[in-house]
Amino acid sequence: MKRNLVPSSNFIRLLKRINKKHPELENTILKILEILSHNPFDSRLKTHKLKAKFEGCYSCVVGYDLRILIKFIDKFDNETKSKSEDILLLTIGKHDEVY
Fold first, then answer.
1. How many domains does the structure of the chain reveal?
2. SS3 assignment for the chain
3. Residue 76 belongs to what domain range?
4. Rounded to an integer, what distance in angstroms lies between the CA atom of residue 43 and that of residue 79?
5. Which candidate, 94, 95, 73, places its Cα nearest to that of 22?
6. Mind listing the pLDDT tens digit of every residue in the chain (99 residues)?
7. CATH number where 86 lies
8. Taking the complete model, does pTM exceed 0.90, yes or no?
9. SS3 annotation, 2-18
């Protein structure tokens, strides 16, 4: 099941900054986002649950020192009477910047 990726304004701002400083990462980030939408727990992403101030959030790996913080959001469609799950993209950045 493919999930919708919902980028926060913070994620969009930081992604633009990363793409400007490191344009060579753009394709890698797009590939990771595609994998994330299809299977957020794909072993290539190393997705793991966070604790403490990031309770309820997950982190996945883009590259050696680049992380994406996400949160799963349950959504109910009144028209089709079905439940689905979106992925909120909270932030992206180097390990030390994100945590």
1. 1
2. CCCCEEECHHHHHHHHHHHHHCHHHHHHHHHHHHHHHHCCCCCCCCCEECCHHHCCCEEEEEECCEEEEEEEEEEEECCCCEEEEEEEEEEEEEHHHHC
3. 5-98
4. 34
5. 94
6. 788 999 999 999 999 999 999 999 999 999 999 999 999 999 999 999 999 999 999 999 998 789 999 999 987 766 777 677 899 999 999 988 887
7. 3.30.2310.20
8. no
9. CCCEEECHHHHHHHHHH
- C-alpha angle 78/7/76, rounded to 5°? 15
Tokens of 17: 């900054």
CA pair distance 47, 73, nearest whole angstrom: 16
Cα 52 from chain centroid? Answer: 19
**From residue 79, how far is each of 50, 85, 90 by CA, in Å?**
34, 16, 28
